[in-house]
Design brief:
68 residues; mainly alpha; extended
Length: 68
């Protein structure tokens, strides 16, 4: 995404995860957005290796605990 393209998006995090992100943002004197963007850039190649829901055989539970 281009640096000048700024779109608002609501993201929902578990309370304990959000607290951890906020603490790290405070520690680094950065915004929550900056921390999440950097985390995505670091993790995206690993996340892309995960199978899509359509690729999983046998209807395994996803991380939310629901059957697909």
């Amino acid at each position: 995404m281009a640096g000048s393209d700024k779109r608002k998006q609501s993201l929902y995090f578990p309370e304990d995860m959000l607290k951890e992100i906020q603490e790290e943002a405070t520690r680094q004197d950065r915004s929550l957005s900056w921390i999440v963007q950097k985390a995505w850039k670091i993790a995206r190649n690993e996340i892309r290796r995960y199978p899509s829901v359509n690729e999983i055989e046998g209807g395994e539970d996803d991380e939310r605990g629901s059957k697909e």
